[in-house]
Structure to design on (458 residues):
């Protein structure tokens, strides 16, 4: 049974929301998670890639949710030239249906309550609390609402935070789960080019057994001419005309430098709702969990100390800035530079890099060469790397 | 006016994220555009991966979109 009031109500049961819920519950406060969909972890709107290092901050790699080990990373120029990138470490392609459920289970074990099939449709401040309105289930009271409601987030807007994503920073993405392809199982690929994926990239994230998440994102700016599916169908036709499509998904990834205010009176934002995916890669799973963990800890402290105003919750903003926030704005500026390169520039860059010894073809070297004509961006890059 | 095509929509919410005036409601397998609030900037049309939103009037000339400053 749902109670009338909780210390914390989390809107959205993805990994960000559930990690926030778990950490808050471990901090000794009462937590409710409301999830719109009837199943935690479904539908999957994700390419499912994580680095081992980031995953291990939360979970040891486990065969139940790690579908495929990745230790090879290729960037592909518009003319098809492959560059094998050195020193990027290793990662996994997850099975998000299972992974998300695991994070949710652990939130419940820590003492949080989760209700699925429940859509939050509004929120208003009532005294020093927030009343979160649930579709056909009335209102639930909270001292703090955590908005972890994804790309389609409105939670912040209900309480005065500006989470609108500019069109050119919204990557509009399409993905197929493809079977019967010959891509090496341990290799991740990202393909670039104005006819491949304008303002974004095409990806191959293998899941083993001849199966892969094959998809792409294009900048919203380019969406008026053709949809993401138009470009994706073109790539599939070119690479694997006979492959079988086992699944199809789509979505938007906000790739800004981050929402300015992720904290307000009685409200915090986590994950895509706060534009916390890496704006250069669009990867957001573990970022959302890192943010969720900070938010959960800060909200528990705020509730114990009795200050759930913007000031009381401010530590979340500050810690996020230290952990990833500042880096994000740099990634965002690098994205603008990297995605403004012409196809010719990308092709010659690939050739230049391939002339270097394999061990020197690191991501930072590639970016440094790509941005050689943009000294200001080189400074940004240097600050990220060192 | 923005038109909604339910048969192709996947309810991914990309449109909600780019709506500068918060005029789109997304529910469980449900989407509504509040035509009173909508400013016909067409951002939702551009960002929709499955073209499930469309504009029934001619596209405004570039630069003439009456959208808030941060939206440009």
């Amino acid at each position: 049974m749902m109670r009338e009031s909780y210390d914390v109500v989390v809107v959205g049961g993805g990994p960000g929301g559930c990690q926030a819920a778990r950490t808050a519950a471990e901090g000794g406060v009462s937590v409710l998670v409301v999830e719109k969909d009837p199943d935690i972890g479904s539908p999957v709107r994700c390419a499912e890639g994580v680095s081992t290092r980031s995953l291990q901050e939360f979970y040891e790699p486990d065969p139940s949710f790690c579908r495929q080990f990745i230790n090879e990373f290729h960037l592909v120029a518009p003319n098809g030239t492959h560059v094998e990138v050195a020193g990027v470490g290793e990662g996994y392609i997850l099975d998000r249906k299972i992974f998300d459920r695991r994070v949710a289970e652990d939130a419940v074990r820590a003492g949080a309550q989760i209700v699925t099939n429940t859509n939050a449709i509004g929120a208003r401040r009532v005294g020093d609390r927030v009343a979160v309105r649930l579709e056909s289930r009335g209102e639930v009271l909270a001292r703090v609402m955590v908005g972890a409601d994804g790309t389609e987030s409105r939670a912040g807007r209900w309480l005065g935070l500006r989470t609108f994503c500019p069109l050119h920073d919204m990557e509009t993405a399409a993905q197929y789960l493809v079977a019967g392809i010959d891509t090496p199982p341990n290799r991740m690929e990202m393909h670039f080019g104005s006819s491949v994926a304008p303002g974004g990239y095409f990806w191959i994230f293998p899941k083993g057994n001849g199966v892969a998440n094959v998809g792409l994102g294009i900048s919203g700016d380019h969406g008026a001419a053709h949809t993401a599916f138009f470009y994706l169908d073109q790539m599939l036709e070119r690479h694997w005309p006979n492959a079988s499509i086992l699944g199809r998904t789509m979505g938007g990834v906000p790739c800004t430098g981050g929402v300015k205010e992720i904290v307000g009176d009685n409200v915090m934002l986590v994950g895509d709702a706060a534009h916390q995916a890496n704006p250069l890669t669009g990867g957001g799973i573990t970022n959302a969990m890192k943010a969720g963990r900070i938010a959960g800890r800060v909200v528990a402290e705020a509730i114990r100390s009795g200050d759930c105003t913007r000031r009381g919750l401010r530590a979340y903003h500050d810690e996020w800035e230290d952990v990833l926030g500042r880096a994000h704005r740099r990634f965002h500026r690098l994205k603008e530079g990297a995605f403004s390169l012409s196809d010719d520039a990308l092709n010659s860059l690939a050739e230049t890099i391939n002339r270097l010894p394999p061990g020197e073809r690191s991501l930072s070297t590639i970016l440094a060469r790509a941005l050689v004509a943009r000294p200001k961006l080189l400074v940004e890059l240097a600050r990220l790397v060192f | 006016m923005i038109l909604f095509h339910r048969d192709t929509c996947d309810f991914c919410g990309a449109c909600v994220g780019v709506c500068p005036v918060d005029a789109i409601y997304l529910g469980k397998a449900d989407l509504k555009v509040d035509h009173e609030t909508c400013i016909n900037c067409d951002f939702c049309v551009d960002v929709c991966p499955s073209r499930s939103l469309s504009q029934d009037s001619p596209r405004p000339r570039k630069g003439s979109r009456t959208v808030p400053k941060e939206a440009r």
Remarks:
- Chain A has ten helices and 18 strands.
- The two ends of chain A are 51 Å apart (CA to CA).
- Residues 310-338 of chain A form the longest helix (29 residues).
- The first strand of chain A starts at residue 5 and ends at 11.
